[in-house]
Amino acid sequence: MKQNRKIQKPPSVALQVVQWVLFFVLIAICYFIETSGSERKPLLLIPVALCIASHTEEISAMLTGMFCGLLLDSACGKLPGFNAMILVISCVLVSLLYRYFLRQKLMNMLILTAGCTFLEGYLNYLLYYALWDYEEVELIWEKILFPSCLMTIISTVIFYFLVKKIAETCGSHRVNQLEKTMLDLWQD
Amino acid sequence: MLNFLRSRKCKAVLWVLALLTGLMLYAVFMEGYTISVIGIMKTISAPFQRASNAISQHVEYALDIYRNAENYDEENRALREEINALHRELADYEAAKEELERLQAFIGIKEKHEDYSMTAPFDVTGYITNDPFYGFTIDGGSEDNISLYDPVVSDKGLVGVITELGTHTATVTTILSPELSVSAGTRSSKERGVLTGSVSLAMDGMCKLQYLDKNTSLKKDKVILTTGENGMFPAGYVIGYVKEVGMDDTGLTAYAAIEPASDMKKLGMVVVITDFSGKAEQNETEP
To answer: B207-213 and B117-118: which strand pairing?
Structure first.
């Protein structure tokens, strides 16, 4: 009942603006980390985009995915749209999954991030390196891309709680359809 | 009163006064030398004088602080500001000196290679995330007279080529990448080969000079330079140093692992060579 009331009362415009400003700051910080130094690092924009998508509607999730994807393309020197496409699809999918089936649990987000990260990593490896048949190309996967994927998945923990805190503070808590239906049935 | 004048006390006083007068007259006739009695007195009293002087100085100092605290505070603040200003000036000076040293290194390139047309030094704005070959972007583009596939060098050696060009930014692919092939050899040109990137060597920041004669005389630490054969890179520019020599899998040719003279992971500034003698007229094909 308590959760149902939250759905009926949408957050105020001011709070939503604050929420998106905070999300934007988070994305910008991740982008600056991505583009600093020459060390191997996690693709922080993936977990950030997916965590935001889990708290927003499909269109907002799509736009977030597109924005983060293009930033990732710029940081990784990839063809503009390569990561953006992967993230748009992933973010919309995550938003829908959270709308209908999934609950806000860390494990759910870790699994989704792992799926998206490995998809991005493997496509990157396949299209940018393996396809060109460089000698000992598998080293790129073993020593750079796979560790980066693992670091990305681990970094999800931070962003999951951070984004959750922002979303809950700003009042955009979502209850999925399954939960809602169950609650309705229970009420009846 | 009359009683006192008659008493022995008065006589004693008069005796003392007479003695002192005598002493004074004696001192006058000594012409500046200390008379022994006074000397002894001074010697005895000297430590006490020093002690009392020190105490009085401390007291005066304490009183002075108390009296002039406000003035000292102001003076202290002014001095602090002056020190801060000097520190800032020193930091600016250090930065300017560092910048000058870096620029002087690039001027050295021009002095050594008069045929080069070079751009001003550009900052490395960022490395491409997780690129195995350490590609990077610079803050110069077509507006700065840069063209696609122009060679990029640091003050130490060859770095790579421009592979993506914007108006104000450009992406550089380094010589660690297998996408790039550079004709290279030793200074005497006895040993020649093709320098290209290798995935395994790139992990250690090195590249590969391949197609060397199987009886190559190349040895460790030998300098490798560009030969400028295909007109893509100027001749005689330092690439790096031989780290090890080995045979190819086929056994027909030898190869050498080359450590680039420029550390690709820590580049700060680079210059783009826009023209040089022997440059291919039409540079639109990929290197």
So the answer is: unpaired
